[in-house]
Each structure stands twice: as C-alpha cells, then as structure tokens.
From TrEMBL:
<dbReference type="InterPro" id="IPR050595">
    <property type="entry name" value="Bact_response_regulator"/>
</dbReference>
<dbReference type="InterPro" id="IPR001789">
    <property type="entry name" value="Sig_transdc_resp-reg_receiver"/>
</dbReference>
<feature type="domain" description="Response regulatory">
    <location>
        <begin position="6"/>
        <end position="123"/>
    </location>
</feature>
<feature type="coiled-coil region">
    <location>
        <begin position="161"/>
        <end position="188"/>
    </location>
</feature>
<keyword id="KW-0597">Phosphoprotein</keyword>
<dbReference type="Pfam" id="PF00072">
    <property type="entry name" value="Response_reg"/>
</dbReference>
<dbReference type="GO" id="GO:0000160">
    <property type="term" value="P:phosphorelay signal transduction system"/>
</dbReference>
<keyword id="KW-0175">Coiled coil</keyword>
<feature type="modified residue" description="4-aspartylphosphate">
    <location>
        <position position="55"/>
    </location>
</feature>
<dbReference type="InterPro" id="IPR011006">
    <property type="entry name" value="CheY-like_superfamily"/>
</dbReference>
<protein>
    <submittedName>
        <fullName>Response regulator</fullName>
    </submittedName>
</protein>
Amino acid sequence: MVQKAKILLVDDRPENLLALEAILSALDQTLVRASSGEEALKALLTDDFAVILLDVQMPGMDGFETAAHIKRRERTRDIPIIFLTAINHGPHHTFRGYAAGAVDYISKPFDPWVLRAKVSVFVELYMKNCKLREQAALLRLQLEGDGQAGSRHEREPAGLLAELSARLAAVEEQAEALSKQLDDESADAAAVATAAHLERKLTGLRRALDALEPGTGGGASVLPAPS
C-alpha cells in the first residue's frame, strides 16, 4: 500500500482550514491542521510534509516569521511553502513572501482548481523523491548483506542488480513523465527546479548501479548518499 503524503494547512481561522480541506480532499492525501505558527512548527518536529499552505496574517507569529523558522531548520528547510493571503499590498508584499522562502504566493479569493493543481505537483514530486530514497536504502542493505556474507556468497549478484535496475527504471520513467507534464503546463519555476533536482539524483543512482555491474570494477563506495 502506497503511503500518503502529508500536507500541512496553517491558518488561525477554522473556516479557512475547512475550506482548504474541502478543496484538497480530492487529492486523497493526509491533511494536517495547524491554527498558529507555533502549532505548525510543533507538527514539523515529528512529521514529514510534502508541502505547507501557510496563511500570512495570523496573530502572534505571522506567516513570514513562521516561514523563517521553517527555513532555518535543516529538517524542514526544503519543504515547499505556498503563502495564502487575504490582502495584497503590491509587489513589495509579494517579494517579501518569496524572500521568506515561499515557492508561491496566492491572494484570496483564489481559484480552487489552480490551488489544487499546484499542491498536486509538489505532492507528486515528494512521492517520487520518497521512492528514490527507498531504492537507495534497499540497495545499501543488499550490498551490506553481501559484504557481511563474505566468502559464503561469492556468486555474482546479477539477479539483485537486475531487480534494482528494473525498479529504478520505473521511477525514472515516472520522473520523465512528470518533467514533461511540468513543461507542458508552464509550471512554477520552483516546481521545475525540484523536478530537475530529482532527475539529477536518479542519474546519480543509475550511474552507481551501472558501476556495480560485473566487470566494471565498481563497488558499494560509488553509491550516492540520499538527500
């Protein structure tokens, strides 16, 4: 069973959170509520999120301050943030949102279809990245097991490499399709950049697998670290 991605919804008004849940429920992912910046930061301590929808104007810690805390933490700095605001103070206000680390800045009232489409892109990128990390971890475990077995298992691990190569090929195919979709839809630059980063990681893993093929002289040391 495929694990669902978590989406963090941050707004001090319950009716706004309810509206966001109604819009995003069609994505069939796990929606997590936070009614303040402090509550959002607490949720981020224990859970991993695909994307954060963050209201700008909140009492106490506002959206900009909350985003600054998120970007300072190593665990959460790479989570995409979409700012939502009921007001528009012009280009300077929008620039402040991007400067705080947001990948998008949307003024209310917004088009529900557009918001859902934007969120779905980041959810899909998150899921692809999770698959990549799982494949890298599986390969490491298999290689460590072969190394610990020593002379008792000196056979060629051709079957293992073939299986891992096939699994990686499936992820590569999905990543390529996603990149084409982003190009066709003229997606946000941040989404395109994230997809390109994922493709680079896939390329690194493919090179590591190729280096492990018999006769290439490769070894477990060439495997790239997951990010």
